[in-house]
Design brief:
This protein has 25 helices and two strands. By secondary structure, it is mostly helical. The chain has a domain of 195 residues: MetI-like (MetI-like fold, Orthogonal Bundle). Strands 1-2 form a two-stranded parallel sheet.
Amino acid sequence: MSETANATKVSGVRRLVAEAGRLASLIVPPRTGGGSRLGYWLLLLVLLLVIAPVLSLLAIAFGDAGDVWPHLLSTVLPRSIMTTVWLMLGVGGLTSLLGVSSAWLVTMCRFPGRGVFLWALLLPLAIPTYIVAYTAVDLLDYSGPAQTLIRWLFGFKSARDYWFPEVRSLPGSILVMSFVLYPYVFLTTRATFLMQSACALDVARTLGAGPVRLFFAVALPLARPAIVVGVTLAMMECLNDIGAVEFFGVKTLTFSVYDTWLNRASLAGAAQISTVMLVVVLLLLWLERRGRREQRFATTTRRYQSLPSFRLRGWRAGAAFLVCLLPILLGFVLPASVLMRSVLFHWRDNINSDFLAAAGNSLLLASVAALLTASLGTALAYFARSQKSALVKAVTRLSSIGYAVPGTVLAVGILIPVAWLDNLIASSMKEWFGIASGLVLIGSGAAMLYAYCVRFMAMSYGAGETGLQRVSPNLEAAARTLGRSPWQTLVEIDLPMIRPALMSGALLVFVDVMKELPATILLRPFNFNTLATLVYGQASLEAFEKGALAALTIVLVGIVPVILLSRTSGRSMHE
């Protein structure tokens, strides 16, 4: 009986060893194939860089934090969570209303100005939410032109003589953010409207459905998955914002992380709030997946016809014109006008050494971050294409999840591993060479580059993956038969062919780094400014006009990808 038991134990141990070996073979790079082995090491390195901030964040949050958590749980978190929920629900509802209505009108209707609205509706993407918030306060505050005009027209002497909505409030922040973020819903919904089957719409029209009934009965249900995706993106950008909510006095979870870390000097408390934000992000992603589940629609024919359109005349054409004009006016034209006016009237205060230094820092950081992410993202996309392993595909997808993580959360998670490595370098330099190097990584801005690469890796990976999908595998096979290695094939064949896609991805990273504020504020070295932090600092001092040129520069840079995006979205199978 004992021999049988021992044999069973030995057999069980062998099975465990075999299973452990199988799992190890999935993780450890294979011994054969130099290019494949290098790709595995690159994959594991990028995965480690992405996962390290999350692991360190959890370690801080669930470590010994003293009595910070009970205080946060009883005072800070309930209010911050409710404020964040209401803000996200408000932004989600208003962006869906603006994005869906404008997408339907410019896609299915013909009215004066439609050709301009096709690209102009994307212009608010060029302006960060915090800049629109600053300009909104400049326009609508007590000393702004709107209330000044009201007092002049009606002879009011003070704010007590009349009522005017308070822009620095939760409703004000919902309104401002929605008019900046609605293009996310517009883009995804318009793309779905363009791909709808003309046959289905024609059948509905032959059954007597007018424009309104056709929209609610046919088009809207088919576009629901795309609307969910766009609203989720808008909500994530809303959760990531810190400049606008702080300026409006809206205490969201993002503001609470910033306030707990810098103003209350509690990194553990900031990590705990960041963990709550991670839960919110995961919940959003789950809701997005669930919203699209079992709601995928496909056409039954490969013949694409022009979509049926409705010619609008009279008051209907005027109403459609106003519906499309309003978000452009409030989301781009008025903020850009305020910036132009401030630059013209305060150009002496704007053109100075601080602006030149911030512009140089922004250009340098954005260029280096775009180059790094383009290189890593393309290498990952190529390796995932060449290796048909499900594990490789899963890891590469996981490596690009940083875009869903808010900048403040990422900054909290990055600080610990970077600070540990910085201290290790400093102690080693002191011990080996007698040099007091200080905090090299944080002091040089490398920590910011780390955050940018993790956060925007998804853009470069997506661009590389999309470009490589257009390259025929036969070309790569021909190069391999001629003796080229996988990396030589990538350099000589693939990269020249996918250069436009790579440049587009790098450009998007460049522009997003120029606009990035939350991670930059928390990880920048002492006395180091970018254009975004210069605008933020001047607005915090109630001197936004002195940072107007920096804000206008960010907007002008942001217009470039918007123009490219509008040209790309304008090309469709139906137009």
